[in-house]
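Collaboration report, partner site 2.

Our partner group contributed sequences for two proteins of shared interest, and the home lab folded both. The records are reproduced in the order in which they were received, starting with the first partner submission.
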Amino acid sequence: MRFVYQAFVLAFALLISPLAKADTLLLFDLSGAGSTYTFSLDSTPPIASAAAGFSFTLNGIDITIDDLFGVTSGLTFFNGARGGGVSLLNIPGGALDLTGPQLYSGSETTPSFGPGGPISLTDSAGAPFSLTITAAPTPEPGTLTLLATGAIATLGSIRRRRRTVAHT
C-alpha cells in the first residue's frame, strides 16, 4: 500500500510540474531631460482600454522619478504607425509624451513586452530620451507555497522517524 501511495504522489507531481511558470517582470528605465523614470510591468499586462491600430492604456502604474519619490500614473503605448512611443499621463509637470518605435508586440488588445534597449525616444520639445527594458524573473507565490509545503512535510517525516527509532 505504501508503494502505491508513493507512486501516486510521484505521478501527480510529474503531471502538474509543467503547469508551474514564473511570470516575467520587466523593469523599464527611462532617462532624459535631466530625469529618470522607473517602473515595472508584467510581460503581458492587463490593459485598461485599447483603440485597435492606435494605442492602449494601462492604469495605476507606480513610477519612481529620479529615485526620490513615486507617483501613480497611467501609461499609453502607441502603435508604430501612429508615431510609436509612450505617454506618462499623470506625472508632476504634466504628461510626458515620447515618440519613437513601437515598444510592444502583438495587438493593442493583447500586447506583450520583452527586454531590449537602449531604445531612442524623443519628447515633444525634441529632447532625447533613452529607454531600457530588462527582465527579472520572479517566482509565483504558488511555487513558493509548494516549496514550503514540501519542506514542512520533509521535516515532519524526519521528526516522525526519529521518534519511532527512539521508541524501539
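Second partner submission, folded after the first:
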Amino acid sequence: MSTGGGRGPRAPLGEINVTPFVDVMLVLLIIFMVAAPMMATSVPIDLPQAQADRMQADPDRLLLSIDARRQILLGTTPVPFDELEARLRANPRVHEQGELYVQADRAVPYGFVVQVFALIRQAGIARVGLVTDPGSTTATPEQTSERGAGHQAR
C-alpha cells in the first residue's frame, strides 16, 4: 500500500489539497459581496442642527428663485437654465454686491439645485446665501422634511 505515489511506504505527500481552502474563500467572498451594500445603506446619520440669526430683509439683494416647476427667476425675470451663467456674468448687480441669494421650492430635486449652484460658481460668484423658511432655528430632520431648516451657506 503506497501513500506517496510510489515513493515508498513512509514518504510524505508533496501536494496539499487546496479545494477546501478555495471553497471557504469563495463562501467568504460571497458573504462580503452580499453584505457590503446592506452595510452602506444602513449607516445612521445624525444631521447637524442649524442655529442662525434671522437676517434683515434687504430689497437691494439680488435673489435667484427656483419654483416647483424648475423655472429659474433672477429677481423677477425668468431665465432659461442654459442662459443662467451668461446672465449672471452680465448682471452688474451680481458683481457690484459680490453675493447672490438662492431660494428653491422644497419640491425641486436636490440634483437640480446642485446644477444651478455649479452654474453660479462658474459665473464667478463665490458668496451664495440660501434663503429658507424662517421657522425654528433648531429643526430636527423630521421637521426639516416638513417645512425646511433655516441657515445660510457662504
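Feedback sent to the partner group on the second submission included the following. The radius of gyration is 30 Å. Helices lie at 19-41, 84-90, 92-97, 110-122, 141-147.
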